[in-house]
Amino acid sequence: MDITILVKLTSRAWSLNILALMHEGMPGRQAPLLAATSAGRTAFAQSLDHLIQLGFLERNPGHGHPLRPEFRLTQAGVSAAEIASRIVNAVPDDADFALLRRSWTAPILALTDMPQRFSTLKSGLITISDRALSTSLLRLEEQAWIRRDIDATHRLPFPTYRAVNQGIAVNRAISLVA
Fold it and tell me: What are the protein's GO molecular function terms (predicted)?
């Protein structure tokens, strides 16, 4: 999956969950999806609208009530839902999944299969700010999903970041389908 699409997809907290549930066969109606995600109504609605804007979901014509529409995956949504399902299944623990719902977690983990410098990560995630990247790396390091090593082989030592533990599982889930 292209990193810019992954960044857009994960910019809403419940997008991965919604796609994963639909990939696993859950009907595309709001009530069952909302109950299965345990999201708040506003955040869920924003994630659903976001998926429609990205072209991964569409209203199912002729199905559902105008106030309670039914949705289905588009052609692009089918492949995105497969990736979302792999990512969600890589982190089965609800406490850990809260970190995965954060905006930059999955894109950072996608880039850290090999040791990466801060500047390389920043250039790979074009729209990320220094503060957002450093905060995300710190959270991932505290959760033991990323390991920070100091490369002292050069004249000026510098840190490198690499996915480990659950982080490498998420990285592989993204890379398997890419």
Answer: DNA binding
Residues 86 and 143 in one domain: no
| Amino acid at site 3 | I
pTM above 0.90, yes or no: no
Rounded alpha-carbon distances, angstroms, from residue 151 to 133, 156, 157, 159, 177: 19, 9, 5, 6, 31
Task: State the Cα–Cα distance between residues 27 and 164, nearest whole angstrom.
Answer: 35
Strand order in the sheet with 116-117: 116-117, 158-163, 146-151
**Residues of the chain with pLDDT > 90: what percent?**
66
Which domain covers residue 125, as residue numbers? 93-178
Rg from Cα positions in the chain: 17
Three-state SS letters, the chain:
CCHHHHHHHCCCCCHHHHHHHHHCCCCCEHHHHHHHHCCCHHHHHHHHHHHHHHCCEEEEEEEEECCEEEEEECHHHHHHHHHHHHHHHHCCCHHHHHHHCCCCHHHHHHHCCCCEEHHHHHHHCCCCCHHHHHHHHHHHHHCCCEEEEEECCCCCCEEEEEECCHHHHHHHHHHHHC
Residue ending a domain, among 90, 121, 144, is: 90
- Is the pLDDT score of 99 beyond 80? yes
Residue 151's CATH number: 1.10.10.10
